[in-house]
Amino acid sequence: MAKICPLAPTLSNTNTLLPLSSYSFPSKSRGISPVRPSLPCLTIRPSNRKISLITRASTADFSSNISYTLGDVNIFTAGGEQVAFRDLWDQNEGMAVVALMRHFGWELASSLKEAKPKFDSAGVKLVAVGVGTSEKARILAERLPFPTDCLYADPDRKAYNVLGLYFGLGRTFFNPASAKVFSRFESIQKALENYTMAATPDDKSSVLQQGGMFVFKGKELLYARKDEGTGDHAPLEDIFEICCKVPVE
After folding, report:
1. Which burial class, exposed, middle or buried, applies to 238 when counting CB atoms under 10 A from its CB (0-12, 13-18, 19+)?
2. When comparing pLDDT for 52 and 125, which is higher?
3. Which of 105, 128, 102, 131 lies closest to 115 in space, CA to CA?
4. pTM of the model
5. What pLDDT is attached to residue 78?
6. Which first-to-last residue range defines the signal peptide (predicted)?
7. Rounded to the nearest 5 degrees, what angle is found at the Cα of 22, between the Cα atoms of 20 and 25?
8. What 3 state SS string does 173-232 have?
9. Which of 143, 140, 161 shows the shortest CA–CA distance to 151?
10. Rounded CA gap, 81 and 129, in Å?
């Protein structure tokens, strides 16, 4: 435990501050006795508390039939064709990484693009979904660029609602998890080189939608993580660990 006590102020005709003992004060001056002010001390006690931001990845929040419910949701390819979720990967044994982005933004899409070769080599289907129309998806595909064979549009946020992903002003701008975005400033700056506001949804309230990352093996949900705030994405290392490990014989 330590105490911090502020120094008492002194006056001098020079710019040098001298200790109080260097001055002699008259006992009385115009009826006023010099009084050394009593200043409070600040006591600091060490604390063992640690402040950390932990985003939980868990499948416990989802029902056992979530894959069936999600499978009935229709979204759109970048080319504008309607497709059901259940038709995007083999529902028996196929492995799929379903990444729901806030909108067709650049940063997460850039990371997914870099990860796609690893997913492909492991036989894992990448399903990247953004909020907006197929036209918005094509803007991302052309300007980032991003492969259209795994890019989908969910203009009405149906999949986001089924999965219970977070939505709102507080989550988007004021959640502590959103501070993580500043730790990746350089990568974000690089990813946004070709960014255009034209890729954002026409319904501007949709930018308040948060995303999430999910891993399925057939109909079984192996991994689920909801983004707590803007820029709070699932670590791809965790995803690789689940779906891209070389099986041990």
Report:
1. middle
2. 125
3. 128
4. 0.71
5. 98
6. none
7. 75
8. HHCHHHHHHHHHHHHHHHHCCCCCHHHCCCCHHHHHECCEEEEEECCEEEEEEECCCCCC
9. 140
10. 14
